[in-house]
Amino acid sequence: MNRKELTPDHSPREAFGARLRSSREARGWTQEELAERLGYSSTHVSAVETGRKPPTLRFSRSADRVFGIAGTVDTFERQFREIQHGSLLEGFPEYVGYEGRAAEIRLYEVGVIPGLLQTPEYASVIVESAVKRGAIAPEQADERLSLVTERQAALVRTPPPLVFVVLDESCLRRPVGGPAVMEAQLESLIEFAELPNTVLHIAPFDMGERRPLSLPITVLTLSDRSLMSYAESSQRGHLERESTSVLPILTAYHQLQAGALSQAATVAMINELRKGTP
């Protein structure tokens, strides 16, 4: 039987596989026996152990359960997140942790529907485009899509956060993935606007110079009412916690909301665009 020797220091993925193998062998289990406990095929387990296939969140949590380490400090889920975050912009993983616990989320986006509001089809087109450009590896695509799903699930937790979203009109008019993808995405935005814990505005092009924000920004209000903002450059994400820096951004966001279309007018604009979508 051929046995691939792993080099845990070579990559986080190989470190995960090596740990999975050693944990399995310490219990005297074959790959088939571990696969049965995990609910996966032995082929899948072999691929993860040898680093040919990246682990998923579900796989990692199953491993924690099977090996009895769920809820501890050094879990397989922690290792999975290190692998996952390796393809993300520096600073973004930390932001996602706060986002999932925020009491209020205020979001402004330009040019593209933000991840929290993307349909699976829209998100897939964005990720596939990144793969084609060589920005991410193919195996990282599934993890990015999983992260989108994970972030969206936090919006329907109990109690759910209040979510205020202002989209630049360019987000609606930039075609992504063809008419069918855009039609479904526009319909999803209307459904988002109808939720009891959400508010959706469009900042129309004719706001012109009255638009106080020109770059995407997010402001989080945590359960203790502390504030933080998040913004990205081409190289990294920046999380700001100092109130002297965040409050002016919050003020600009309120000014943006005041000048944007009402939610009723926003929904009307989206419906007009849908009528023009074949």
From TrEMBL:
Domain called HTH cro/C1-type: residue spans? 20-76
Q: Which SUPFAM superfamilies match?
A: lambda repressor-like DNA-binding domains
A Pfam family annotated for this chain is: HTH_31
List the biased-composition ranges (Basic and acidic residues): 1-13
Q: Where is this region: Disordered?
A: 1-24
Q: What is this protein called?
A: Transcriptional regulator
